[in-house]
Amino acid sequence: MKESCKKSRGGSVRRKGYGAGGLVWLSLSLPICNSPTLARQNPTTQGAESGLPSATRASTGEQLPDLQLPGWITGILVDPSGVAATGATVRLSPTDQSLDQQTLDQQMLSDEDGRFSFSGVAPGSFRLTIALPGFVTQTFDGKLRSGENYVVPQIVLPIAPATT
Q1: End of a domain among 19, 39, 59?
Q2: Nearest CA to 77 among 118, 116, 111, 114?
Q3: What is the sign of the dihedral through the CA atoms of 63, 64, 65 and 66?
Q4: Is 164 among the domain residues?
Q5: 0.90 cut: is pTM over it?
Q6: What are phi and psi of 99, to 5 degrees?
Q7: How many contiguous H segments (helices) and E segments (strands) does the chain have?
């Protein structure tokens, strides 16, 4: 049984127990107090004070912009014996390019350790094309999520067949 304390006029504290009637009144008053209409705050004022976009846009059907953070794509290239493939041309291109997306292909050379790295890459599906004279050209497809550092599994470049 819950008790509450109440001061009487004389300054003494009187304890009052809640009986079954008090609990019924309390349980009936909770749905009224938790009503969304009574508890609602003005989202426009909240958004203006915090400097954040107002929540009323989402409630009127207008979608807020989806924040897409650029990411990184890194990897290592080796030959069949495990030696770093230095100077390989690595080309990054999007595979799901839409009309409004202005993503350009990027190209670089692998370093002396066979490493390559692309920064500031827009999220989405991508394709890596790796070419090095004397080796078979390889492609690798993947999908970069917003803000992700995507590490490509080690790519082994097979030796190209000799032509005579």
Answers
A1: 59
A2: 114
A3: negative
A4: no
A5: no
A6: -65, -35
A7: 4, 10
For the chain, the domain total comes to 2
The CA angle 122-113-84, to the nearest 5 degrees, is 105
**HEC assignment per residue over 20-67:** HHHHHHHHHHHHHHCCHHHHCCCHHHHHHHHCCCCCHHHHCCCCCCCC
Separation CA 110–CA 85 (nearest Å): 7
Q: Average pLDDT over the chain, rounded to whole?
A: 74
Structural domain for 11, as ranges: 3-59
Contact between residue 120 and residue 70 where contact means Cβ atoms under 8 Å apart:
yes
pLDDT above 60: residue 24: no
Q: Which DSSP symbol is given to 84?
A: B
Residue 46 lies in a domain: yes
In a domain, 145, yes or no: yes
Distance CA 49, CA 39 (A): 19
pLDDT digits (tens, 9 = 90+) for 70-123: 999 999 999 999 999 999 999 999 887 553 444 567 999 999 999 999 999 999
Q: Which two tokens stand for residue 81?
A: 């014996």
In this prediction, residue 95 carries a pLDDT of 84
Q: Rounded CA gap, 18 and 161, in Å?
A: 91
